[in-house]
Amino acid sequence: MRTLIQGGTVVSAAGSAAADVLIEDERVVALAAPGAHGWATDADRVLDATGRYVLPGAVDMHTHMELPVSGTVSSDDFETGTRAALVGGTTTIVDYAGQDRGGGLLEGVERWQARAEGRTCADHGFHLMVTDVRPDTLDELPALVDAGVTSIKLFTAYPGTNYSDDGRILQAMRRAADLGLMVMMHAENGIAIDVLRAEAIARGDTDPIHHLLTRPASLEAEAVHRMVVLAEVAGCDLTIVHISSADALQAAVAGRDRGLPVYTETCPQYLWLAIEDVPEGFDAARYVCSPPLRWRREGHQERLWAGIATRRVDAVATDHCPFTWEQKEAGRGDFTRIPNGVGAVEHRLDLVHQGVVDGRITAERWVEVCCTDPARLAGLHPRKGVLAPGSDADVVVYDPTATQRLSAATHHMNIDFSVFEGLEVTGRVETVLLRGRVVVEAGAHVGRPGDGRFLPRGPSTMT
Ligand code: URP
Ligand code: ZN
Ligand code: ZN
């Protein structure tokens, strides 16, 4: 099957040019200047991309589909979540499998494999959240690498569930360094935050806004700094995930400026939303995520956008961890019981593209932080994240001039509200190919659950 995408502007991290893309079966075979080839004559299918951007399928390196948390499960499963991802131009997700306390690492991956198997609409790989660092669990790390899971997430937050102390983190980091594993870090000082949370509840400050106010940016930055130092001692690669504040970004960049392999990820909610946007009363529960939103008046959003422009931020992922309103209701009267997370897997490309429209970043940088560098960080490049001969033919045909209003009434995510409700953005995904097959046509999903494949990953190629 030969597919030709012609007439578009191919946008890549390296530059943009009018170019046609030739696909054979599941792979890109060639790119050429329009008119410089005779591919149309023997193509089985020709897609017209005139006036459109043509870019690699986007890679969301941070999702939580059907994640068990706080006695419930995040509301997108692998089918609904990856369908929404595809409609938004994301052809690959890297989801976080989890270790049970007392359980093993491979067990966790197998559990997640079973959930995803035959159900995903997009390709998928896994990180593993190591929540119980023991000598025997660390001994499983080589087998994890063999299974294609080449990154582990550790937490300085959530004492009692996911938290590891500094000694355990250092032990895990050392083993990760030996094996070339990437360490993904949730960096907030959970021990100090728990003191602030308990004090708030004792004062009667039980509304959701107190979730945001008891997780200050200083305690995110402190944990980032500490983790950078531990990674330096261990000699491992480190990605600070879901950076929400200018302070935390600065702490990570300080490590990088010292020559350390420290990488940075932020999310659309931290670029777009602020504490000033959060409504009063329990309605604020829909914005509860960790780390929390930050004050616009303190300039965090501006500095994160500037970080993307100046290459201090390497990747924009979603940390997609949605809950319905009914699930959020569990925390009425006690903000500590609100399940943490927001949903954005469908809107990441559009929300970052709006930064291009607004003149904050270039189109090339948009592709780099949404597609190419997440693929590099996740050890999926050049199979994913780039349109080059030999890469998977995951392609997005994007209309940069169409406007759309984001809304729960029209989104595909399994959430009955949207934290981006009413936001108008310019740019829209039109067509998506997954390994050469059209799976989104005129913005509608035309593929099937089970189209997605498990992606065994190699080591990160960011360094
Ligand atoms: O609030 C969030 N981010 N929930 C998802 C779990 C995590 O810490 O990434
Ligand atoms: Zn986290
Ligand atoms: Zn997460």
| Class per helix and strand makeup | alpha/beta
Bound ligands, each once: N-(aminocarbonyl)-beta-alanine, zinc ion
Q: Any idea how many domains?
A: 2
Number of β-strand runs: 21
Outline the low-pLDDT stretches. none
Q: What is the CATH C-level name of the largest domain? A: Alpha Beta
Number of helices: 14
Could you tell me how far the N terminus lies from the C terminus, measured between alpha carbons in angstroms? 36 Å
Strand content: 15-25%
Biggest sheet character: 8 strands, parallel
Shape: globular
Q: State the CATH topology of the largest domain.
A: TIM Barrel
Mean pLDDT reading: 98
How is this structure best summarized?
The chain is α/β, with parallel strands linked by helices and 463 residues long. It is built from 14 helices and 21 strands. The chain folds into two domains: 2-55 and 386-403 and 423-445, Urease, subunit C, domain 1 (Roll); 57-377, Alpha-Beta Barrel (TIM Barrel).
